[in-house]
Amino acid sequence: MSDRQLLHLVIGGELKAIDSVEFADLDRIDFVGAFANYRSAYDAWKAAAQRTVDSARTRYFILHAHRLFDPATGETHEH
Questions:
Q1: C-alpha angle 56/58/63, rounded to 5°?
Q2: CA separation (Å) from 58 to 15, 72, 75?
């Protein structure tokens, strides 16, 4: 595994609708954590998703924060 830190954030919560990616209440978002690599983020995402498997409107996401900025320089990356 590479020692290079690639920041990933895992968040989730109840969505407005099953076919939506908008959260029902932004004040109730579950911030699972920040992770230095995708593997760690995936493991945390999977555990959170499995805990809420009975709630069809609850979803968790992995945000690839390292794609948004370079931690070494602070420069942002626009897509």
A1: 135
A2: 6, 34, 33
Residue 35: is it exposed, middle or buried by C-beta count within 10 angstroms (0-12/13-18/19+)?
buried
Q: What confidence tens digit (pLDDT) does each residue in 8-30 have?
A: 999 999 999 999 999 999 999 99
Q: Which of 35, 25, 33 is nearest to 58 (CA)?
A: 25
Ranges of each domain in the chain: 8-67
**Residue 73: pLDDT band by 50, 70, 90 thresholds?**
low
State mean pLDDT over 49-53.
Answer: 94
Give the DSSP letter string of 5-57.
---EEEEEEEBSSTT--SBS-GGG-EEEEEESSHHHHHHHHHHHHHHTTT-TT
Does the structural domain 8-67 have CATH classification 3.30.70.2400?
A: yes
